[in-house]
Amino acid sequence: MVKAISRNDPCFCGSGKKYKKYHKDIHPESRAARLIETQKKYERKIEDYQKSTGNIPQCQEGCYNCYYEDFSITEIEFEFIMHELKTWSKDRVEKIYDTALDQCETIKNERPDTWRNLEIYKPKDDGTILAEQMKKHMTVRLNSFPCPLLDPETKLCSVYDSRPLVCRSYGSTHHRINQATRVQVCEYIPHSVEHAAITPTVDAV
Description:
3 domains
């Protein structure tokens, strides 16, 4: 049975704002609503942990190291970004689009194997292709270009409110605390195992 919600009810996201003033264009039982709920729970858990422990990751405003990493997002997260881009001016959208096209050409030239994997990957694949791609990227570390949604002037995310979960989670635990193998998360987080010990467990969100 679909849960009824009126325009004046609190929004499903848990913000405390009225539904009509926050996510009125999103059905409370949709995949989009579930994603928003997950994001909010995740952020609250991280915020509560940081306040109670004082353990703050190096991921603060002004650092955009992770924008040069490979990362994947879900279809619904992509739709969220496109939804926000629809509110932009035509010139601004075209600028982002042109930047993305230029970056595609760079990938073709600098990482032809990666581009080939992107062309042949299908959603129903078992993940082998993506796993192999990420394994190869570990030897590359950073791309020569950032995410096209990084504002070149402010060095901030231009779709911050619609950013994917992977972006919201950067700086939280990447590896299990009992994992013995150390890897460098980024130049500011050199040891994944030590970092896991001072970040919250969010797998239950």
